[in-house]
Amino acid sequence: AQSVAQPEDQVNVAEGNPLTVKCTYSVSGNPYLFWYVQYPNRGLQFLLKYITGDNLVKGSYGFEAEFNKSQTSFHLKKPSALVSDSALYFCAVRLNTNAGKSTFGDGTTLTVKP
Amino acid sequence: DGGITQSPKYLFRKEGQNVTLSCEQNLNHDAMYWYRQDPGQGLRLIYYSQIVNDFQKGDIAEGYSVSREKKESFPLTVTSAQKNPTAFYLCASSRQGSSYNSPLHFGNGTRLTVT
């Protein structure tokens, strides 16, 4: 079985400050890890993914994520938050087995205050 | 531009009625998925299809049905047997096979309200 945990329902940061949205996972095997962002009443948009190789992955809109195999974590980061980054963020895991089904965390609402 | 189109955006139905949600993609993706989103519960998989004329139940398939007669289309029917159908429904697609490292592409969802 595969599972994803996003331990924080809500993250609040001031504009210009760095942000971190946390994600941990549990799988049997080597996972593919993803971050998605969702704006109100819209579908999810892909931000970045980890497949293999460099543990620091860079994605869209200045976001990056750090894969840590020993801690089974894949935290999303951005050096300087913007008010427009305020949204709902989902971490997801996918395996080469299990028909490639994705499992999502429950989401973290990021609020960036001016 | 390629993408996934879900229609309608908002849907209202009376309890006891079946309703079908449309999902069409022009990305030439083999795999398609239906998810249900409820506040604070993330996304839960209803059904998925890896190839035309084949589909499998996800984690919460009871009260739902699907068909996959064409590669581009994967409609979802919410039946009267679904006890709590009011939710936001998301359709997604992806490349398949050796490309499980591909991200999902999502439509903009259908918000279903049943009263």
Derived structural class of chain B: mainly beta
- The structure class of chain A reads mainly beta
Q: Can you write the helix and strand succession of chain A as a string?
A: EEEEEEEEEEEE
Largest sheet of chain A: 6 strands, mixed
Query: Rg of chain B to the nearest angstrom?
Result: 13 Å
> What amount of the residues of chain A lies in strands?
over 45%
- Uncertain runs of chain A are none
| Alpha carbon gyration radius of chain A | 14 Å
Proportion of residues in helical segments of chain B: under 10%
* Assembly type: heterodimer
Alpha carbon gap, first and last residue of chain B = 36 Å
User: How many β strands of chain A by DSSP?
Assistant: 12
| Biggest β-sheet description of chain B | 7 strands, mixed
Protein traits:
heterodimer; A: 114 residues; six-stranded mixed sheet; four-stranded antiparallel sheet; 12 strands; 52% strand; B: 115 residues; mainly beta; 0% helix; 49% strand
What does this structure look like?
- The complex is a heterodimer of chains A (114) and B (115).
- Chain A has 114 residues and is mainly β.
- Chain A contains no helices and 12 strands.
- The model of chain A has no long low-confidence stretch (mean pLDDT 93).
- The termini of chain B are far apart.
- In chain B, the strands form 2 sheets. In chain B, strands 2, 4, 5, 6, 9, 10 and 11 form a 7-stranded mixed sheet that branches.
- Chains A and B meet through strand 5, strand 6 and strand 10 of A and strand 4, strand 5, strand 9 and strand 10 of B.
Structure summary:
Chain A has 114 residues and is mainly β. Chain A has strands spanning 3-5, 10-14, 19-21, 24-26, 32-38, 44-50, 56-58, 64-68, 73-78, 87-94, 102-104, 108-113.
Write the layout of secondary structure elements.
The complex is a heterodimer of chains A (114) and B (115).
Chain A: E1 3-5, E2 10-14, E3 19-21, E4 24-26, E5 32-38, E6 44-50, E7 56-58, E8 64-68, E9 73-78, E10 87-94, E11 102-104, E12 108-113
Chain B: E1 4-7, E2 10-13, E3 19-25, E4 31-37, E5 43-51, E6 54-57, E7 64-66, E8 76-78, E9 87-94, E10 105-106, E11 110-114
Parallel strand pairs in B: 2-11
Antiparallel strand pairs in B: 1-3, 3-8, 4-5, 4-9, 5-6, 7-8, 9-10, 9-11
